[in-house]
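Fold it.
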Amino acid sequence: MKRANLALLIVLACLAALPLVGGAYALRLGTMACMYAILALSWNVVGGLAGYPSFATAAFFGFGAYATGVLLNAGLPLTVSILAALIGSFVLAGLLGAVLLRLRGHYFAIASLSLVGVLRELVNNATDLTGGGMGLNIPLASGSSIMADALFFFYGMWGLLLATALMVIAVSASKLGFGLVCIRQNETAANMIGLNATLYKSIAFGLSACFVAAAGGLYAAWVHYIDPSDVFDILYSVKPIVMTLMGGLGSPLGAACGAFLYLVLEEVVWRNYIQIHSGVLGVLIVALLLLLPHGLVSLRFRNFWRKAKHV
């Protein structure tokens, strides 16, 4: 296993110890950190490895949230509901990917972005099933106390993050990952040597969607109420791209660290500059991207320590 992937698993193991040192507020931040990392790692499969700039993350996040919410209201257990959302989104994304991934560059970006609007309108119009614009109330599915609720959803989201990380590590070390890198470098040449680019890209698109949908489903159960403007928010498509660029495009460790850094910046800026937090956060992100164009993983601490030893 690569050192970066081993480091990612160590970071996740340290994150699992958060309940030992923090209260309900820390658990809320930890749950959001896990959710952001799931979005970033998932996007990195199709955006980082294959090089296709997908803006469909919000579409599958909302799909998973509503699929889980509807199934929970129908009386199914939370685990079954999330698993159904995961499988359903993988199949849906795979079928859509077979069509949309024939487009390239900004054409694919626009097409993937349109999925968010299409699914949002479908939810808005299916009022009998989803509640439409009035939103959907979701029954409780966790502990009876505030702390028990916080622990339940933190470890639920952490478990999803671990599964996502293992999936990304497995993909990057597999024939599928090698094929996706070939597609990113030169898709025409990859097709000429016999690589089934459409199949590889469709699988990557499905994998980039399924854990996002599962995170959306767990988020819906966590907040107990969802509406289309919340779970189909276009920021869920933009944030994973920003997080991955901040951490390092194509690197699972970079994507996760970028997600954690983004959450810290978002929380600190929001608490201190509530009136202009969006502008301040944007300036900080642009500054980081300019100073570290290849992300956090471009930092070389080994040379720093070597120099320190000689001082």
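Residues 301-311 have pLDDT under 50 and may be disordered.
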